[in-house]
Specification:
12% strand, alpha+beta, four-stranded mixed β-sheet, paralog of FGE (formylglycine-generating enzyme), single chain
Length: 529
């Protein structure tokens, strides 16, 4: 290859390298690298210019040499041309050395470019990762903020509902408290009236006894003299009558005792011939009856009637066709207290709110002073447990014998007022009240029995604590509870607003599963004194 061709090739390489450096300088983001590469490019330009100048000189010399060879006259000039060869060789040698320097510089530039590209790629990856992390962080922060905002809104709604509920409960409790206070005031006034009436009756009774004693004393003093004579005449006449009877009375068979007869009227069976030989039981001392109300931790308990101890005949007479209420037998009980009214919705709802229990359904008849209904035996037991915890006294459900003793109140008739139904004395199917056969009546709507207890006939049937016995055979004569029996069935006493003739009596008894809930079944409570 000739020197000119070799120089041209070197010049083309330098030109390509120059173009490459310019392109890389434009792409790079580092200003220092770009400036350095631009300076290197300028040096290459100067080197390329020098090579081009050298090539031009070589071409001119080559043309001169060719012309001299073609002409004889140029033979003499060969020596001169030959003498220029070392100069050209020196130029080529210089160009070659410059080429090597350029190649070395180019290699150095390529290595620097590789490092720069690696750094750029690393920085680009770091920037992308930083952008992604920033985006993820913003997204996470937005998600957390959204969740927190939703949670806060939900919490605010729940708090608003809870506040509204508590305000409603507060208003309801306030109304209930006002009603209890009014009822307590009425009960106190009624108790005062009853006490005043009792004192007046006692004073009147003492006055009558005093007057009768005075009259008898006056009569005895005035008739004392002739009384002895009349007594002697009466004794003589009696002796004479006995003698005459013995003389003139014919001998006959001894008289037979009349059998008691049982008849049915529109009010149920009535014993028309009660036995005259039955031992009479002294009625309980009504003056010993007392009323009171225990305080709860945040209110008042049911109004209670403290009954005196006593003995009564439990069950139906043996002449009546109620086999599960026989045989009639005497039962002696110690003093105890029983609620004057059936437990009301007002009293039970207070317990349900305090313990978080479900409120029983009132069927739309109203709550307040109406007897609570749709409660099972277990519900009633939980209520008396809560009542005991609130007051510190032992509350429980009444036993059968306690309930009947309190309901009869010293009477031995079907109803505490007698054998016949009387209008508006109770709420039953045929009692003549506004609620007959339709729904329950507010407690205390009818007159009380001699013990001061209301609704022992009609309104709602009532749970007792007693397990069911099919009859009274083997029942003990003392004790407040007859143990044993079928405890899968609990005894229910009294009648309801749906009851008719054959169920309206204080001795009526039925049995139900403890889980039973009915709209005509409630309860009342007992406190052990």
């Amino acid at each position: 290859m000739s020197s000119i061709t070799q120089a041209k090739a070197e010049a083309q390489k330098l030109i390509r390298r120059y173009n490459q450096l310019q392109a890389e300088a434009k792409k790079t983001d580092n200003m220092a690298d770009a400036a350095r590469k631009a300076a290197e490019a300028d040096k290459l330009v100067s080197q390329i210019s020098a090579l081009q100048l050298a090539i031009t000189k070589l071409q001119a010399k080559d043309r001169e040499t060719t012309a001299q060879k073609s002409s004889p006259a140029t033979t003499g000039k060969k020596k001169a041309t030959t003498s220029t060869a070392p100069i050209i060789a020196n130029d080529i040698k210089h160009a070659t050395s410059e080429k090597m320097v350029l190649e070395e510089r180019m290699n150095h530039l390529e290595e620097a470019q590789k490092k720069t590209r690696a750094q750029i790629e690393q920085l680009t990856r770091a920037k992308s990762e930083l952008t992604r992390l920033k985006h993820d962080a913003e997204k996470s922060v937005a998600h957390v903020a959204k969740e927190r905002r939703v949670h806060d809104e939900k919490l605010q709604q729940e708090l608003a509902k809870l506040i509204a509920k508590k305000e409603t409960e507060h208003q309801s409790l306030k109304q209930e408290l006002d009603a209890v206070r009014q009822q307590a005031q009425k009960d106190a006034e009624l108790l005062k009236v009853q006490r005043d009436a009792a004192r007046a009756m006692m004073e009147k009774h003492k006055q009558l006894e005093k007057e009768q004693s005075l009259v008898l004393h006056q009569k005895s003093s005035s008739n004392k003299k002739w009384f002895i004579g009349i007594a002697l005449v009466a004794i003589f006449a009696l002796i004479l009558g006995v003698l005459l009877a013995l003389l003139f009375t014919p001998i006959t068979n001894p008289p037979t005792k009349a059998t008691p007869m049982v008849s049915l009227n529109n009010n149920g069976p009535v014993d028309t011939h009660p036995s005259e030989n039955e031992p009479k039981i002294e009625p309980p001392n009504l003056e010993a009856v007392k009323m009171y109300r225990d305080r709860l931790k945040d209110g008042h308990g049911p109004l209670m009637v403290k009954l005196p101890s006593g003995t009564f005949k439990m069950g139906s007479k043996n002449t009546l066709p109620y086999h599960d209420e026989r045989p009639q037998h005497e039962v002696t009980l110690e003093s105890f207290s029983i609620s004057q009214y059936e437990v009301t919705f007002e009293e039970y709802d207070w317990f349900a709110w305090a313990t978080g229990r479900k409120l029983p359904n009132d069927r739309g008849w109203g709550r307040g002073k109406r007897p609570v209904i749709n409660v099972s035996w277990y519900d009633a037991v939980e209520y008396v447990k809560w009542l005991s915890n609130q007051t510190g006294y032992n509350y429980r459900l009444p036993s059968e014998r306690e309930w009947e003793y309190a309901a009869a109140a010293g009477t031995q008739t079907f109803y505490w007022w007698g054998y016949k139904l009387e209008k508006n004395k109770a709420n039953c199917g045929i009692c003549g009240s506004p609620w007959d056969g339709k729904k329950t009546a507010p407690v205390g709507s009818f007159p009380p029995n001699p013990f001061g207890m209301h609704d022992t006939i009609g309104n709602v049937m009532e749970w007792t604590r007693s397990c069911f016995h099919s009859s009274y055979r083997g029942a003990p004569s003392t004790g407040h509870l007859w143990e044993g029996g079928d405890c899968s069935k609990r005894v229910v006493r009294s009648s309801s607003f749906k009851s008719y003739e054959n169920s309206l009596r204080t001795t009526k008894r039925q049995k139900f599963s403890p889980k039973t809930r009915m709209d005509m079944l409630g309860f009342r409570v007992v406190r052990v004194n």
